[in-house]
Amino acid sequence: MSAFTQAFAADRTPPLLKRGATAAFAAGAVTAVAMSPASYLHTTVARMLPLALLAVSVAVVTGHAGLPTLGQVAPYAVGAYLTARLALTGIDLAAVHLLTAAIGGAVVAGLIGTVLVRYRGTVFLMLSLAVAEVTAITAGQWRAVSGGTDGLAGIPAPRLLPGLPPLHGDRTVLLYAATIAVAATFVAVWLLRGDRRMLLTAARTNEDRARASGHLVYANLWMVHTAAGGLAGIAGALLIHTHRWITPADVGFGVAALALLAVVIGGARSLIGAAVGAVIVLIVRDIVAVEVPGHAPLLLGTLFVIGVYLLPGGLTALPTRLRRQLSAGPHSAPPAPANASVRRTS
Amino acid sequence: MHVDTLAVTVVDGVAYGLLLAIAAAGLTVAFGAGGVLNLAHGVLIAAGGYIAATTTAGTWASLVAATVLATVAGAAGGGALAAATAALRGRGHLDQALLTFGIALIGGNLLTTIFGSDVLRPRMPAALEGTVMVAGYRYPVDRLAVLAVAVLVAAVGYVVLHRSRAGRLIRATVDDRAMVAGIGVNPRTVDAAVLVTSGALAGLAGALATPILGVGPGTADTTLLLSLIIVVCGGLGSVPGAVTAAIGVGVVQTVGVVTVPTAAPYLLIAAMTVTLVARRPTVPNGAAS
Amino acid sequence: MRIVHPVEPDQPPSPRSGRDPDHAHGNGLVASGLRHAYGPLTVLDLDTFTIAPGDRHAVIGPNGAGKSTLLGVLAGTIRAQTGQLTYNGHTVTRHGAEWRARAGIGRTFQHPTLWPDLTCLDCVRIGGWHHRRNPDRTPMETLHLVGLADHAHQHAGSLSHGHRRMLDLAVAIAGQPRILLLDEPAAGLTDTETGRLIDVIHRMPSWIAVVLVEHHMDVVAAVADWITVLHHGRRHTAGPADTVRADPRVAALYLGTNGGGHAAHP
């Protein structure tokens, strides 16, 4: 069992108050950005949100189902291209886009899941890497859908309701995208609380014991993987709504790596941590991209190495780890990887 | 497509497959023995290729130097990876895999920065530049030479793995780690040795593959994906399986790229999916009492 | 999914199914032709093994005799390489552990890791998840039964080894099994805990079949009325508990093998 998915031992459902505070903080941050007069800021933040939501989807699969994945980029791509194609054929209702993208993403993730959820740990990671590569290759080759390497541009803006004007203004797009992203994240958090969280923890941390108690582990993991695909599909729709163009690089390997990195940094078990991780990575990347263009992978890789070495359990586990270190003294051994024998991956 | 071109392509495919086998054998053994999934493997292959492409100058001496240099660089890379992953041993295989993934991103970007984004090819000695008639077909000499070296390396590798004490230890570690520890050998030493050897083989395979395919920015990703497909199709940890799968992948990849370029990756993925569905996952914990 | 036993709950414990295989064929678990090998090493080779309602059956043998493998194959944790299993007359060879658990075949594990991040109460709730609407006992009552009520809100990972073993038993009991397979339930327990274990097994309804793999001969003596001795995966001896324990060949088997670390005192 990896320290990464194991995250923190004191893993309890956050109390309602804490969750409410997080929601208020998210709303406050978005409002603060929206109030600012700098419209480039609106665009920048709005364009981070699809990736943040994709990171949430990766955190659901990685942290809750315990399946480290690079492959959520596949349903993300499906959601994005479905939305782009719908918009280009004149269907511009945002709700239709989101629904189609969610269903498309869930269907694709469900199909992939039938093969992949039988595997665990590094083998799952390896297979999901193949999924990400195939997604990138397909997006590049299927010109009829993706427009080849040039991509699709000039995608019309969506409308909230028939008759309303399309979502054009930078501030409007930001508020719309933030609403969808925050709402989708909190629906995911809400769905993964209480008994469902407990059952997934059981399936993840000791699969044999869960099976021996009659729990359908494959079916449960498949359902989580599929639902997370729906979430990734919505993220794909948001990608089109905020960018209004798409190239194969937007659903490429770099995006898959970035989403997983966001989860490594944010903490696998915390969906909100993953979203924050994505925003941090994107900010650093955008700053570096301006200074030394062409070195985004170098930066991603460096952050990966730093994240894996220094942040076991991610940022969200940091307070717990620090508290434990302070209370136990500097020379205390790290907590033994519990039930290391249960989930051998080889 | 003419029959003789197809025949030549198939021979190319077998040669490429053997190179992939040399590269993937180390990957599968490292995974089977120590559970380390080395996602930086493709970068080591690409590094070997770049070293070969830039060191060769058309002379025999430079060719030999390039091959040796690529192998040594690969071994050094493998050693670095062994040290880096060993530090995370207590945290599990997943963190190790994520670390190698980060290293792969860094390495890939450094290679592109140093060597540019063009596809490079080595400059072979004049004697290897021509073509010869083999069984009625014209065939480039350099590819025949690569094929010969690949067969030689594979044969030596087989003998080392099956006849030498080191090889037996490695195979024993794949089968049963505890048993190896029981006879007084630290399995972690075996892990490190496997990663170094695996890196050396990756560098060598990269150097040998450049005359056929060249080396470019896509090499690391492609070879990693192909190696992973080989490891999965051949069975995790199985060297004979990897060799069989590698030759299959090499032929499909080479022939596919020539005949149906767009479908080639899907053929391989389809083959992998069929293997995965047909094969039952192994029980995660050995339950022998 | 649920298979209902045509057994009266207050029927007395059966003396032993070995002499009465038809009884097991009707409403028990019958394994036949079980063979299991890891590479060249055959760990299990049994022509038949039957479990009937009410059995109190101990499987003993030196380490490496295939006991845990047998339990894993019966519970579905390990898929039998060859052989057939029927349960209540239905073939269940290809049914997984989750199906068998729901059908009433519960088990404990030799290394009870449980779910370290969950509280004891949650562990028992998960064990009895499929009976949560009409449980025989509430999760708290189950914890009481095994003596862990005081630890209900403690994480399973923080329990002592003995407590973890008792919690594993509680999780298995919460699943309301008709056949309970216990893998070395007394290993590493203190004397008090061992007494508690024997007490819990004695308090099982008489129609529940209990099969335990055990080295601890005191527990075997207290609980089992039939003993099967495995050696190298094969049935070495089988018979009523008293006879087998008095059999000098069994004592010789234990004393003569280096593997039988926990010495038995028959």
UniProtKB/TrEMBL annotation, chain A:
* Keyword Cell membrane tagged: yes
**Which branch of life, at top level?**
Bacteria
Q: What InterPro entries does this protein's entry cite?
A: ABC_transp_permease, LivM-like
Supply the Pfam families for this chain: BPD_transp_2
Spans traversing the lipid bilayer: 20-41, 48-67, 87-116, 123-142, 173-194, 215-239, 245-264, 271-290, 296-318
Q: What does the UniProt entry say about where the protein is found?
A: Cell membrane
Q: Predominant location of this chain? A: membrane
Which keywords does UniProt give here?
Cell membrane, Membrane, Transmembrane, Transmembrane helix
Membrane topology is: Multi-pass membrane protein
In this chain, the stretch annotated as Disordered covers 326-346
Protein name stated in the entry = Branched-chain amino acid ABC transporter permease
Taxonomic lineage of the native organism = Bacteria, Bacillati, Actinomycetota, Actinomycetes, Micromonosporales
TrEMBL record, chain B:
Membrane-spanning residues where? 6-29, 36-53, 59-85, 97-115, 144-161, 192-213, 225-248, 255-278
Keyword match Secreted: no
Q: What is the lineage of its organism?
A: Bacteria, Bacillati, Actinomycetota, Actinomycetes, Micromonosporales
This protein is called Branched-chain amino acid ABC transporter permease
For whether the record's keyword set contains Membrane, the answer is yes
Checking CDD domains in the record gives:
TM_PBP1_LivH_like (cd06582)
Provenance organism: Micromonospora gifhornensis
Membrane topology per the entry is:
Multi-pass membrane protein
Pfam families listed in its UniProt record: BPD_transp_2
TrEMBL record, chain C:
A Pfam cross-reference name? ABC_tran
Q: Does the keyword rRNA processing apply?
A: no
Q: Name one GO molecular function term.
A: ATP binding
Question: Can you give the residue ranges of the ABC transporter domain?
Answer: 29-257
Q: Supply the PROSITE patterns for this chain.
A: ABC_TRANSPORTER_2
Q: Which Gene3D superfamilies match?
A: P-loop containing nucleotide triphosphate hydrolases
Q: Which InterPro entries match?
A: AAA+_ATPase, ABC_AA/LPS_Transport, ABC_transporter-like_ATP-bd, P-loop_NTPase
Q: Which UniProt keywords apply?
A: ATP-binding, Nucleotide-binding, Transport
List the SMART domains hit by this protein, alphabetically.
AAA
- Membrane spanning residue stretches: none
Span list, region Disordered = 1-30
Lineage top rank: taxon: Bacteria
SUPFAM superfamilies named in the record: P-loop containing nucleoside triphosphate hydrolases
Q: Do you know which PANTHER family this protein is assigned to?
A: ABC TRANSPORTER ATP-BINDING PROTEIN, CONSERVED COMPONENT OF ABC TRANSPORTER FOR NATURAL AMINO ACIDS-RELATED
What is the name of this protein? Answer: ABC transporter ATP-binding protein
Q: Which lineage is the organism of this entry classified under, starting from the top rank? A: Bacteria, Bacillati, Actinomycetota, Actinomycetes, Micromonosporales
